[in-house]
Amino acid sequence: MSKSRFFKFTSGSLVAMLVAIGSGAAQAAEMGAKDEPIKLVMAEWTGQHVTTHIAGALLQRIGYKIEYVTAGGYPQFTGLADGTLDVTLEIWMNNVGDIFPKVLKEGKVEDIGQLGLQTKEGWVYPKYMTDVCPGLPDWTALTKPGCVQALTSPDTFPNGRLLDYPADWGSRSAQIIKDNNLPLTTVPGGSEGAMVAELESAVAAKKPLLMMFWAPHYVFAEADMGWVTMPPCKSQDNDHCINPPEVHKVVWSGFKGKWPAAYEFLKAFRQDAASQQQMILAIDRKGQDIDTVVNAWIDQHQAVWQPWVQEATR
Known about the structure:
single chain, alpha/beta, D-Maltodextrin-Binding Protein, domain 2, three-stranded antiparallel sheet, 13 helices, signal
């Protein structure tokens, strides 16, 4: 729905609309400090950008001011803890490092629940690699000399190379490799974009590649990829294992008191993998502007997001 056709809410009209559509709701939450911008964290991957821009666009149309702030995977928690950042909407809970549990325990941030994103994470490979690594997807195929040789690079010789997440995302692969004595060495990717570029180059040249990756992502709509059946995780701490992660929403501890209606909205806010993957494809492969893609989704899915707004009446 275009901005010209979208019902623009003031704090008063928001309350009136919520009372009208929120059957049985007794009172709408207060808007709070609607003249102060809510600072939303922008992380390093497109899927998170989509999630954040959908929430931001709807908050703006409700009547809030929004500011998008770029922050790294771990540094964002420091900003949320001291109130210089307000919201981060796509925290993959198996990749939070040590800072998040600390500030959560101290009550400086609040976990406001799961995003609802259906996820997958692990080691992936182009399926043509079964020619040089017979036995895939079983992880033991990665120990065979021919497979190791195919994956070897100058910086990992004599081990095979595993393209890992960027350094500030953390690495669980290195510990799993060590625990299982695998002939592999992790090499951190520079960014999501750099990892995808290397994958696309490898696929075009039919070159062997093993990499840590996640879904939802548009690459799985374009390349025939396999998921390795992972080796055992022997860590006493499950956070160091590689499993399909939960994805949570986190806010600064003072958020609810400052922006009550926005807090209720964000608690109700959800994102599904199928929708996100299509939007990622439109942005990263088709070159469409993220605001255009997000506004189109909002236009076509009022029945999806209207209940999130209704939650602000509770």
